[in-house]
Each structure stands twice: as C-alpha cells, then as structure tokens.
Give the backbone structure.
Amino acid sequence: MKLYYQRSGLISLIIAYAFTILAAIGQHLGSSSPALPYWDSTSHVLQIFIQIFMMISMIIAIHIISREYSTGTIRLLLIRPLPRSWILLSKYIAILLYVLLGILGSIPLAMTIAGFTSGFEQWTYVEGLYAAMKLFVTKLFVFPFYIALAFTVTVLTRHLGLSLMITILFFAFTVSFVPVIPGMSLLISYLFWTLVHATFLIIGWRAFEQQEILRREE
C-alpha cells in the first residue's frame, strides 16, 4: 500500500472525500424536492464519490506508469530479475488496493451524510439496504475496467498528456453504459465488459513485454 504512504495519494483521497461532501450537501441545500429515503440518499452520495474517485484513480494509474518512462526509471526496473509482467501486475494490484480502501472509507462517509440530509429513521429498512448494496457492487465493476484502460493506454503511448486525454474521453463516452448496456441483460453486459477488460489487460501486457524485447535488441 505504498500509495497510502505517499502524500499525493492521501491528498487525492482527501480531495475526493471533500468534493463528495460539498457536492452532496450542495445538492441537498439547493433542491426543493423532498429528501430521499435514507438508503437512497446513501446510494446517491456513493455514486457522487465513485464518479469523482474514478477520475482521480485513472489519473493516478496513468501517472505511476508514465512517470517510469519520463524519469527513465523504467530502465532500472528492466535489470531486476523479475518478469516485466510482474512489474505491471504489481502496479495494477497496488492501485486496485488503493481504490478498494478508498471506497471502503467512503461507505461510513456516505451513511453519515445521508443521515444529515435524510435522517437516520429508515436506516434499518432492509430492502433499501439491499438495493444500495446491489448498486454499490455494480458500480465497483467499473474501477478495474477503467484502470486497466488507463494502464494500457499509458503503456502504448508512454505520454502523460496523451494518455489522460484518451482515457478521459473514453470514460466520458462510455461511463453511462458501463457495466450495464441499455437493451442487454445484466449477465450479457457483464460478460461483454469483462471480455473488453481482459482485452485491455492482454494488450497492455503484450505491449509491455514487446517494449522490453525492443530495448534488449537495441
């Protein structure tokens, strides 16, 4: 969990939490509609956090790969007696663990905000809790998908700005139907995006390995 010990990782997480609080409370104060039920409000806050944290996570994923190329430290990694696929995998797992802990921290935050905006009277409503958990698990699917995209694009371009532009544009155009594609069943949608996710990982891994071969030939 090296990311959590770096100042940039902690600051990024704090920013995500802060923007979530401001956005949720701002929407509540600016809305004339009746307050949402407790668990619906919790789900709404979680969705706000996920959108914000997804962008931050993609930026971090792009940064930790592009930094190796821009600073030249990628050559130091090449001389280590480890397969390059392990290097890429370790970075992928590190960002996923960072995301997981960040999301786990957002749950009590969302529940607290929902209590202030909607009251705690319905927190024992089991059906509402089940719906919130289902939505939460569904949204979790997007993180490994977009992080794999960010890694692959960065490995292919080796350029911070270009990787950010491509990844953010792809995210903007696809976020509304990931992981559930309109008109398709949930199972088919998950299978489709899982296949795309695996394709991203394979392309990124093969490109990373090929870059090693090219450097060795040089």
About this structure: Residues 51 and 94 are 20 Å apart (CA to CA). The radius of gyration is 20 Å. Confidence is low (pLDDT under 50) at residues 213-218.
